[in-house]
Design goal:
With about 475 residues, the protein is an alpha/beta fold. The protein contains 11 helices and 11 strands. Helices cover about 40% and strands about 15% of the residues. The strands form 2 sheets. Strands 7-1-4-3-2-6-5-8 form an 8-stranded mixed sheet, with no helix packed on it. It is elongated. The protein starts with a helix and ends in a 23-residue tail after the last strand. The relative contact order is 0.04.
Length: about 475
């Protein structure tokens, strides 16, 4: 038969396709390189007490994924040895358990590799010892044991169990179906999240140990719960009344909240600011609460002297021991004398800018409770007259070390400015007067006359008459 050129090309293409198909079948499906030359594979030996139905060609799985095949199963002097051909590139920890399982009811045994912890991966030639393997029980033995167990049950009792079971679950088919479906879904989800589940089981030991270590506390808590439950049972009437009357009380509270809702946020915001200040000055508040009862007690002690007496006046008993100008008045740090206002003015000008306080050294013997010695709450061990100085690195610098001003009257050389009045200095509350008539010009520019200062006024004056207004 003579073949033309077209038929030869078709036969050549068919031959190439056939060779490629046979190559793919040999490489991918039959895995000839791995079977003939061991390419991409390594061998691990598993020691088993018996075959358990395992056969050559069975699957080998790692965490549910097929990772190899059972290459051979043979007998030894102590049991059975299975040669596993595993895929390279999949790191399987060497600390594991090899279990033989049945994939279906008709057999199809496979080897499941279950890791127990982090360990170096398996290598070619490794052996999984007999202590780390297991096989399923023999089916014939299970059936014989089940048959023996059924024979041990009396027939009448078994009939009663079946009848009672039918009565118990009769008509619950949909519910049982939901339970079975839910269990199946739960098992599927657990298999898909096997790694986190294994991690949870592995990490559960510290939690369980903590429960064991705190068993006394748990026992005490349970006893206290029992005590509370007993009290609730004893006070059942009170609890019932509380539940019955709790609804109207809750409605009243809700109505109250509705009425104060416009102003409540503002009040709470202000309370927050007050609470922050209270937290900062917690120690001061505590000291105040500690000393307040003692101050009240000292005040009440002044009433004891006149208690149960025949005196007409029964009130506070005080002993005036005047220590005038001891210690002297501190004027350093306040407005200089030329800037002081006269007491005759009745207006209320704005306060000068700045801080007014006694600016002598902190260890000075007078005015020891002045602003300069206020402890800084947020900076222990530091004393300063202002919060700004407390919160900064600035330190207190006194103006002088005595009772009077020194150097610059405005104290600008200290580096700490003092309050200044921008207006011109106020006039001093003093004026010349005419002794003949007793007239004088006041600070407001108006003329006044006080006759008791004139010549010829009575001489029988006392210090009390000097305090009286003119004409009295």
């Amino acid at each position: 038969m003579r073949l033309d050129r077209r038929m030869k090309i078709q036969l050549a293409v068919f031959t190439v396709i056939a060779l490629v198909a046979m190559g793919l079948m040999g490489l991918h499906f039959m895995k000839l390189p791995a079977k003939l030359f061991g390419i991409g594979r390594y061998t691990v030996t598993v020691e088993l007490p018996q075959t358990g139905g395992l056969y050559g060609g069975g699957n080998v799985t790692y965490r549910g994924t097929e990772v190899g095949r059972v290459q051979d199963v043979r007998l030894t002097q102590t049991g059975v040895v299975a040669e596993l051909s595993l895929k390279s590139g999949i790191d399987i920890p060497s600390d594991l358990v090899a279990e033989v399982h049945s994939q279906s009811a008709i057999g199809e045994q496979y080897v499941a590799l279950l890791p127990r912890g982090n360990a170096p991966p398996l290598r070619n030639g490794d052996v999984i010892a007999l202590a780390d393997t297991s096989v399923p029980p023999d089916v014939n033995t299970l059936l014989a044991d089940a048959n023996t167990g059924l024979r041990a049950i009396p027939g009448d009792n078994l009939k009663t169990v079946i009848d009672e079971s039918y009565t118990a679950v009769g008509g619950l088919g949909p519910e049982l179906s939901r339970i079975v479906r839910g269990s199946t879904d739960l098992a599927i989800e657990a298999r898909e999240h096997l790694d986190p589940l294994i991690t949870l089981i592995d990490d559960a030991q510290p939690v369980l140990d903590s429960q064991t270590n705190t068993s006394d506390a748990i026992r005490a808590w349970a006893a206290q719960v029992a005590t509370v439950s007993t009290q609730l049972k004893t006070q059942d009437d009170s609890v019932t009344r509380l539940i019955d009357e709790g609804g109207p009380a809750a409605d009243s509270v809700r109505q109250l909240v509705d009425r104060v809702s416009p102003t409540l946020p503002v009040v709470l915001a202000n309370l927050l600011s007050v609470a922050q200040v209270a937290v900062t000055y917690q120690d001061n508040i505590e000291q105040l609460l500690v000393l307040f009862p003692q101050v009240v007690s000292a005040g009440q002690a002044g009433l004891v002297a006149n208690l149960n007496t025949k005196q007409d006046y029964k009130g506070q008993y005080l002993s005036f021991n005047l220590n005038i100008n001891l210690p002297p008045v501190c004027s350093t740090g306040f407005l200089p004398a030329q800037q002081l206002r006269s007491a005759v003015f009745e207006d209320a000008p704005n306060r000068p800018e700045g801080d007014l306080y006694c600016r002598v050294p902190q260890e000075s013997a007078f005015n020891v409770r002045g602003a300069r010695n206020i402890p800084c709450e947020t900076v222990p061990g530091k004393r300063a007259p202002t919060v700004e100085m407390c919160e900064s690195d600035e330190v207190y610098v006194p103006l002088n070390d005595g009772f009077n001003w020194k150097g610059d009257p405005n104290a600008t050389l200290s580096g700490q400015p003092i309050p200044q009045v921008p207006a011109a200095p106020a006039p001093i509350a003093a004026a010349e007067y005419d002794p003949a008539t007793g007239s004088y010009v006041g600070p407001d520019g108006r003329r006044y006359t006080q006759s008791d200062l004139a010549t010829g006024a009575p001489d029988n004056k006392t210090w009390q008459t000097m305090l009286l207004p003119p004409g009295s």
